Amino acid sequence: MKVSPSIKAFEAGPQATSGVSVPARRPSALAKTLRKWRGFLLAVILPTLLAAVYFYGIAAGQYVSEARFLVRGSSSGGSSMGALGAALGGAGFKPVSEEAMAVRDYVNSEDAVREVRKSVNLVEIWRRPEADHLARLWVPNPSIEMLTRYYRMMVTSEFDTESSTVTLHIRSFRPEDSQAVAEALLRASENLVNGLSERQRGNTMQDAQREVEIAERRVASAMEALTTFRQEGRALDPTSEATANMTTVTQMEAALAQARAELREKSGFMRTDNPQVAVVRNRISALEGQIANERQRLTHGTQAAPTQLAGYERLMLEREFADKQLASAVGSLESARIDVARQQLYLARITQPQLAETALYPKAAYAVGSIFAVLCVVYGIASLIFAGFREHAA
Question: I need a surface site. Which of 23, 224, 258, 348 has the fewest CB within 10 A?
Fold first, then answer.
């Protein structure tokens, strides 16, 4: 069946009937650009804009209170400590790095949180009404572990190895809150340093006192052993008595030798029954008997005196050593008392916590710029990876 020209013209549409050709619609340059960069816009620009809205329009200001201190202790030498040491400590004191680092660690610990909570309501401070929901402490009744984690975000401490100073930075949503937390932390740190000083001095005195007690027990034991020996041997000083006995025996032996010489002399011109000869003989017999008795008493017949003297000298030597140990321990105790009087640790405040006038956090420009830079780097790396996948697939 033939189609009439009018029907063909109607099917061709108004363009054919009018005789005017209309070109097809093309997407605009803006649409092409948006379609080309839609990944970058969604992955980089949109999150950056959201971050800018939060930091510039929603985030609450955080005020910082700063405090600086160092821990000082007694100095055994007279070396120069510099202008700062001379101004803060005077003669005889110097910064103590080990204790300062211990205080720095204490500030970051859970114990510090517990101590500060005794005087400052940390939960209330970090849940102020003006605080935004992202930066505030989320839980109204947090556990000590959760509070410590948030505390470590809002409280930072730095240790300078050159000057041995510790710097505290405390953030909160009100200037007076930051100052109150900083002051409470300084008081807690001072209590810690005082406790360290007391324990150090107490340990020094305890060690010295323990040595004195040990020496006193040794002296008492030596004295008791000597007393027992004297009671059993019935002699106060066996050495002196033995010396006296030996002197007596020596004198009697000299008298015996003289009597024997006299007997030989008289026997040369006198008869044996002469009374003078008999007297000399009797004196010789008496001297010999006395000498034998003295020797018997000295030795008790079985070398008892030498054994007794050896035991006595051993006890006397023990007592002498005990006395010397006691004298040394007492001297050490006196030296310890002098050292303890000089041993002192204290926390010297360099700067006091001040009331902030301007909120230093959040640093909006830095935060937004950092987010933009990081997202750009991530987007660039991801684009390279996807391009490699497409090329490999092709």
Answer: 23
C-beta separation of 188 from 170 below 8 A: no
Residue pair 174/306 in contact (Cβ under 8 Å)? The answer is: no
**Alpha-carbon gap, residue 329 to 319, rounded angstroms:** 15
- Give the integer Cα–Cα distance in Å for 295 and 246: 9
Please write the tens of the pLDDT for every residue from 208-248: 888 888 988 988 888 888 788 777 765 556 666 666 667 77
CB neighbourhood size of 362 (10 A): 20
Cα 156 to Cα 151, 311, 325: the distances in Å are 9, 71, 52
Flag whether pLDDT at 315 surpasses 60.
yes
Q: Does the pLDDT of residue 77 top 60, yes or no?
A: no
CB 379: neighbour CB atoms within 10 A?
16
Phi-psi group of 78: left, alpha or beta (phi > 0 → left; psi -120 to 50 → alpha; rest → beta): alpha
Q: CA–CA distance from 42 to each of 32, 374, 380 (Å)?
A: 16, 14, 13
The two tokens of residue 77 are 């030498």
**Alpha-carbon gap, residue 267 to 373, rounded angstroms:** 137
Distance CA 21, CA 290 (A): 167
Q: Alpha helix locations (H) across the chain? A: 5-12, 14-18, 29-36, 38-40, 46-53, 82-88, 97-107, 110-117, 122-125, 144-154, 175-233, 238-267, 275-299, 304-342, 364-393
How many residues belong to the chain? 394
For residue 5, cis peptide bond before it (omega within 30 degrees of 0): no
Q: Model confidence over 323-382: pLDDT tens digits?
A: 898 888 888 888 878 777 666 788 999 999 999 999 998 898 999 999 999 999 999 999
Contacts of 165 (CB under 8 A, 6+ apart): 68, 69, 70, 95, 100, 159, 350
